[in-house]
Fold this sequence. Notes:
Layout: H1 3-24, H2 30-52, H3 60-83, H4 86-95, H5 98-108, H6 115-132, H7 139-166, H8 169-192, H9 195-200, H10 204-227, H11 230-237, H12 240-250, H13 258-276
Helix pairs in contact: 1-10, 1-11, 1-12, 2-8, 2-10, 3-7, 3-8, 4-6, 4-7, 4-12, 5-7, 5-11, 6-11, 6-13, 7-8, 7-10, 8-10, 10-11
Amino acid sequence: xxxxxxxxxxxxxxxxxxxxxxxxxxxxxxxxxxxxxxxxxxxxxxxxxxxxxxxxxxxxxxxxxxxxxxxxxxxxxxxxxxxxxxxxxxxxxxxxxxxxxxxxxxxxxxxxxxxxxxxxxxxxxxxxxxxxxxxxxxxxxxxxxxxxxxxxxxxxxxxxxxxxxxxxxxxxxxxxxxxxxxxxxxxxxxxxxxxxxxxxxxxxxxxxxxxxxxxxxxxxxxxxxxxxxxxxxxxxxxxxxxxxxxxxxxxxxxxxxxxxxxxxxxxxxxxxxxxxx
Length: 277
């Protein structure tokens, strides 16, 4: 696996954990956050379109499918964070994705990982689930987290294939962000009404920043998937749970027991197999 792809996937993991922590640890206005994140994504779409233009026509079916899946993902994400702790929701949702993506990549792109790589993918999933499963977590939060995991595996595969067809991962992710931003903004206005603009003005920089850095983080992982196997890059990105657990422990003051720390080490071992096995 190319070192550049490894570095991109791990950097994306850190970015993803950071903006999820900011979303969970903010002032709690999820509707205003959704609006601002959409605006940030549209801004990045505008810049990228002026510089690089539109993706290849062959990428449009993937773009449409990705936008629809992402809309469900965002709805589930906000609902989940209203229902439970970040350390439970974030890790459980991420842990359910790598093996599903590996199966999908084998079926659609004929990418079958060698044994050591497959073992690494399995270890990442097992470790993430060790970190994320909490017997005391509300059932509602757990169900939302599993729903997010299905969305993650679906859009990861669709977007990886779409970025390859588009020929430029940055252009592809810019157009998904721009198209998706319109219904996200409409949903926010529908839920909040004219008061939305006033609510969003309370802390606009944080929401806009999340929209921009999430765009950059996802662009990195899509680029990595154009030069490396889809399932391996996806699994490496899920090392974000290690970063997420540390952020939740240090900054959000969420309790992490021995089981979760062991799970984090299992994730790290799996990532090592994927990268260097």
